[in-house]
Specification:
Order of helices and strands: HHHHHH
Largest sheet: none
Helix content: 55-70%
Shape: globular
Number of strands: 0
Oligomer: single chain
Strand content: under 5%
Number of helices: 6
Length: about 80
């Protein structure tokens, strides 16, 4: 899927009470659209997080994408 096509994918609002549910729902949406590129998934997920969540992830967002993706999952789970 091209970057242009990614703009058509709408992810649900972040679920503060259950970040894991939000993460799994987003992953299911990516699977439905056959998006397999980890960097595209990561960027789309981060772009859809609320500002108060991304502010908690700023140290993660400044690292390499592959490393940051794993850490971001853990932080969202513990948020």
């Amino acid at each position: 899927m091209t970057t242009k096509d990614m703009s058509r994918i709408k992810l649900p609002a972040f679920i503060y009470d259950s970040p894991v549910t939000w993460w799994l729902t987003c992953d299911s949406i990516f699977s439905t659209y056959r998006i397999k590129n980890g960097t595209e998934k990561y960027n789309h997920l981060i772009a859809n997080l609320p500002a108060d969540v991304t502010s908690k992830l700023i140290h993660v967002l400044n690292t390499d994408v592959e490393e940051a993706a794993d850490v971001a999952v853990l932080i969202c789970i513990s948020a």
